[in-house]
Amino acid sequence: MGGAAIQLKTDDQGVKRLVGGLLTRLSNQEPAMKIIGNIVRTSIIRNFEVGGRPQKWKSLDPKTKKRKKSNHVLRERGMACSPHAWG
Description:
The chain has 87 residues and is an all-alpha fold.
């Protein structure tokens, strides 16, 4: 009975480098978290600037408005919503 032999040789060094690079970048999540944090921060600031998104926030109840200094609840409590106040 005759036989045939197949010999395969693979050079997978490029794949190993690629996977190694991916693993290294995935192990350090700080850059991605900074980007995500800035996106969320910008979104929150914008939300306060326009008074609610996608829909405007409901107006305060007239009784509540009467006892308050302004319509800016968080500002009255010392929480500013300007980008400079968020560090």
